[in-house]
Amino acid sequence: MKKTIFIFIFLLMFITTFASCKKKNQDNENNKEPEHVHEYKLVNEVAATCTENGVKAHYICEGCDKIFDENKNETTLAALNISALNHSRDEPTYEWNADNSACTATRVCKNDASHVETETVNAEETHVDSGCVVDGKNTYTATFTNKAFEKQEREYIIDHYGHSWGYATYTWSADYSKCTATRVCNNDANHVETETVDSKSRVMSEATEEHEGAILYEATFTNEAFIEQSEVVMTPQLPTLSKISFTLVEDSSGAYYSVKAASSSISGSLVIPETYNDKPVTKIDAAGFEGTAITEVVIPASVTCVETYAFHNCTKLVEVKFIDGAKSCEIGMGAFKDCSKLERFTLPSSLTEIESYLFNGCTSLSYIDLKYLGKLEEIGNSAFDDCSNISFLYLPGSIKTISDHALGDSKKLSGFYYNGTQEDWSKVVVRPHGLPDTATIIVCTDGQIVDYMVPEE
Predict the structure, then answer these.
(1) Which domain holds residue 67?
(2) 40 φ, ψ to 5°?
(3) CA-CA distance, 455 to 457, in Å (whole number)?
(4) pTM for this structure?
């Protein structure tokens, strides 16, 4: 009986459990969710730009937010990415401002005209002057920091202005066989135009014992800027041998000639030769031509000694000319004293002293220029005394002593020129009446001394 009950209970539990499972399965079937259907929404393509990525056209499910490509295959945003284009620039352009002081560089992106790259810089200016024959120029240089922009240069040519020639000068050679024409540009002293040509000569008049000769020299240039030049050169008078007496002297220094007047009646021009019988003429005798009627005398460079009173009282003598070149020359006291018509004289540049009474009483002298006597140190006593018409005086800077009454009677002198400084003049010894008391102004090379006081006795 118990066994029957047990079996009954087991069957009852099985039936109950089976019924319960069946009901549960039926309940599960009733509660199952329906299958998802995608709702596709088209998303248009976002184009890539120069600097930002784009996205291809695609779909997105509004229900599950899944992403699908154009073929509605599921995908990801990464797979739909369109890379940024990057800039594609045009060639740069460059624009200068009106005065070229600055330059602007610009380049525009081909993909997007709003993408513009620009830089403005100040230009550096360099200037090259133009010359007579060479053009000048102004150069403006713009250098950019952006390496995409190239250095820019702008040049402006300044035309050359041509020569501005000064007046031509002409220089003859010592023997007048050649003439050189020269002109210098006013704009540039280094620009010199020159031409040297041989001259042609012809004798206009022959030299005689009484007159100088004359030779005409002519020079013609190929450069049309230079004009034809001509120069008349005087040739020395022939030695007036007939007016001169020659005395041969032989001593320890050798053989030479001294000269004097052939007679007291000689007149006119006197030209003393350098040599006679192949020996030098070196001395003019004391009072050798005293009182003669000569009108001019030419003394050669061979003469080293003019003795005292050599030409004293030659009252018709107008001009004395020493041919320069003697290493030394001594002119004795009173050599030209009382030559009342003497107007001009040229002394040898080697002279160191104007002896006493040398030109005393030469009342026609008015213009005394001793500036060229660079070795002259002393003017002796009464050297120009009784020369009352002297109105111009130029003393050399070498002068150290002006002796008593040297120029004391030259009352027409209100002043004179001195080829030295004021300090140099302060060291010059001026003896009483060495200068006239009217000469109160001294014009020195560095200015004037005014109210100069001449020493009194």
Answers:
(1) 37-86
(2) -80, 130
(3) 7
(4) 0.57
- Name the 3-class secondary structure at 403: coil
Domain membership flag for residue 333? yes
Buried b (16+ CB within 10 A) or exposed e, 52-81: eeeebebbbbeeeeebbeeeeeebeeeebe
Kindly state whether residue 10 falls inside one of the protein's structural domains.
no
Predicted confidence at residue 52, as pLDDT, reads: 86
Same-domain pairing of 185 and 227: yes
**Residues 126 and 175 reside in one and the same domain:** no
Q: Is 382 in the same domain as 441?
A: yes
The larger pLDDT score, comparing residue 418 to residue 15, is at 418
Contact 281, 240 (CB under 8 A): no
Largest CA distance in the chain: 218
Find out whether 372 and 356 touch, Cβ atoms under 8 Å.
no
The 3-state DSSP class for residue 22 equals: helix
SS3 at position 146: coil
Residue 25 has a pLDDT of 56
Verify that 280 and 419 share a domain, yes or no. yes
**332 shares its domain with 298:** yes
| Tens of pLDDT, residues 385-431 | 999 899 999 999 999 999 999 998 888 998 899 999 999 999 999 99
Q: How far apart are CA 355 and CA 172, in angstroms?
A: 37
Residue 381 CA to residue 378 CA, distance in Å, equals 10
Give yes or no for residue 205 having a pLDDT over 60. Answer: yes
